Amino acid sequence: MGLSVCRVGVVGVGTVGAGVIHILLKRPDLLARRSGVRLQLTKVAELDRARALAEGVPEEILVDDFAKITGDPEIDIVVELIGGMGVAEKVVSSALEAGKSVVTANKALLAEKGAALFALARKKDVALAFEAAVCGGIPIILALREGLIANHILSLTGIVNGTCNYILSKMTEEGAPFDKCLAEAQKLGYAEADPTFDIDGIDSGHKLALLSALALESWIDFPGLHIEGIRNINLMDVEFARYLGYTVKLLAVARPQPETGKVFLSVHPALLHLEHPLANVHGSMNAIALEGDVVKEAMFYGRGAGREPTASAVVSDIVSVARDLCGNTDATSWTPRENPMYALAPMAQYRARYYLRIIAEDIPGVLGRVMMTLGNNNVSIASVHQFESELDNNRVPISILTHQALEGEVLKSLAEIDSFDFIHGQPVFIRIEG
Ligand code: HSE
Description:
Elements: E1 4-11, H1 15-26, H2 28-35, E2 37-45, H3 49-54, E3 62-63, H4 67-70, E4 77-80, H5 86-97, E5 101-104, H6 107-124, E6 128-129, H7 140-147, E7 153-159, H8 162-174, H9 178-187, H10 196-199, H11 202-215, E8 226-227, H12 235-243, E9 246-257, E10 262-273, E11 285-292, E12 296-303, H13 307-325, E13 351-361, H14 366-376, E14 381-386, E15 395-402, E16 405-406, H15 407-419, E17 423-432
Helix pairs in contact: 1-13, 5-6, 6-11, 8-9, 14-15
């Protein structure tokens, strides 16, 4: 199928807007090759002209009024990235009214005004895509719309606000006070412009409303959700919980009750047992654990905030809408390329840390010769343990953890070590990852 062109207008060069523009300008060929559609960044609207130029927006496509994008008959897709409610709502509604598809990361707008906006999109037969509105870089909307399409979702539990998770993680791990942790989260760019949205659970509530709309096919008006934040969580409870084998997390929870036709939708702090998979989601990371009646348990994990992860999700929406618009849903666009991007690398060039284990006779000089062999092959040792053992014939197991080393050199060392007459059995070699 030939390459179609799709014209894109971006409104807002803030954190996420700049990230999206960078991808569109730097990766047009990659996106075209993979999707069969060439995205053309046609106009960018931003009031702060200096900021837009500093972010690399070409001067000739920069405008100062979103209406120059929503009113431009040439533009196919409008990307709303100014956030907030007032102007953003006008951008989205006027673009939809003009028959343009819209991509947005604006969870507050969709959760609170989505019923009317989605109705307008349906009426105009255009897309209103919002992957980036829920958990940034995690493709959870795509997963719910496509990957899990065969399922009734039986429950959903998520850590969907990076700021709160960052604060609670810091309180747990460092005993740091709430206000200090919040200030750090703001500095790192995770928090909303008004961080009370994060810490009072409102941002999580917005995301939960959108998740439930998809996962449970139930649009619940946002004010109906039960929402508690983390303002009242203090260090003493975090520490007590830890002592009892639990950790404190802010959760977004959906529990449908098929027998009554009702659903609990709630954002609240909760104790999770340390062995629960969500208990190990630390810092600003997000995760969603769900259960489908067919797929059973599934979990999605990734970065829910920040310029690049969110921009990654926005661009995925733009591409997906563009493919639909151009009727270019040609499945063959994902067949392997004729010229592969990478050639296969031999494992001898792999670099990792390694766990080695040998069985040696417990006699003078053994350890020295083993260490010398590794050193002569540029393998640096991080730790060595010789275990007193009850093996027969005065034999002892020795484990060695290496620093980062070249696999070929580690294997060469092991072959040499294996040839010593005081070594017995096959040396064990396991890579240490992560
Ligand atoms: N403030 C949000 C968070 C950003 O902390 O998760 C992404 O929605």
